[in-house]
Amino acid sequence: MPKHSFSYDQSKTSYPILIAIAIAHLANDMIQAIIPASYPMLKENFHLSFAQIGVITFCFQLASSLLQPVIGAYTDKHPKPYSQLIGMMFSIIGIIALAYSNNYYSILFSVIMVGIGSSIFHPESSRVAFLSSGGKRSLAQSIFQIGGNTGSALAPLLLALFVLPHGQHHILWFLIIGLFAQIVLSYIATWYKQVLHAVKGQTKKLIKIPDLSDTTINFSIVILLLLIFSKYVYIASITSYLQFYMMEKFGISDVQSQVYLFYFLFAIALGTLFGGFLGDYLGRKYIIWFSVLGCAPFTLLLPFASLFWSGILVFIIGLIMASAFPSILVYAQELLPRKLGMVSGLFYGFAFGMGG
């Protein structure tokens, strides 16, 4: 029997791996999303100001944004199949620390741990999605992203059900998600390690380099970064303060406000999925323009809307906002196909963190 019976076909889409990495992304981003979803509870428990809430967001985004491009650039040259497991371990430590935080500085420590975990997780996970795509890159990117967006959408609902009625310590329930993710990531890491062995010495032959000058590529990457940065500024603002806005304007409870945050985050998940498919059929450029300009009228209406219409507007805004994400990421990956980790770090990490 041959020592290595595994074979890798880059033209064949590996759906089990795509689904597995989407599930892992769901778990990772669900743990991340606990942080903004818990702001009202933390604000009340520790008598925090809105400025202090902003610092919590800044620390989380900074830990993720500064490390992610560096880790991505390193793993481009030295792939680490098991690094995602290490990243999830940092996130688990962060969850435990958040559940038992008894002062402001321990909260900052916990969110920094989760940020570091995210910065380690994303670069190699994005590469796994790329390698398992079988050439269907928009589809693979949509599946990968919808996993993360679904996790972000579910976090406030689960927090409202299992944590808010019982108290801060019940954040520990999310450990189940982290431990389950470790099992899924072990399966992915084994496949990834086998792929690396199968393509050893053939990487340059398998990668298609765009016939563009370095100046054109660099300029295009900067434009794409600015586009996604502007979107993340918008998303970070809503996820950080939407609950407070709904509670203040309409007098609803903390638990009820989580439902409106869910509307927005779930719409982002749907927008990511549909945006990936529509980008293939209608053209990525048109989807990006629609996403950039389409949110403006609904955003301008939001301050004048009733409670009912606020929910609808928030959903529409999230749907349109997220529709360009797959197209932007695939453009960037095709421009720099040998630097997938760095691209992931820049777009999932740096742009998202600076936007926050």
TrEMBL record:
It holds the Pfam family MFS_1. Keywords: Membrane, Transmembrane, Transmembrane helix. One of its GO terms (molecular function) is transmembrane transporter activity. SUPFAM superfamilies: MFS general substrate transporter (SSF103473). GO terms for cellular component: plasma membrane. It comes from the Bacteria. The chain crosses the membrane at residues 15-35, 47-70, 82-99, 105-122, 143-164, 170-192, 212-239, 259-279, 286-306, 312-332. Residues 17-356 form the Major facilitator superfamily (MFS) profile domain. This is MFS transporter. The gene is fsr.
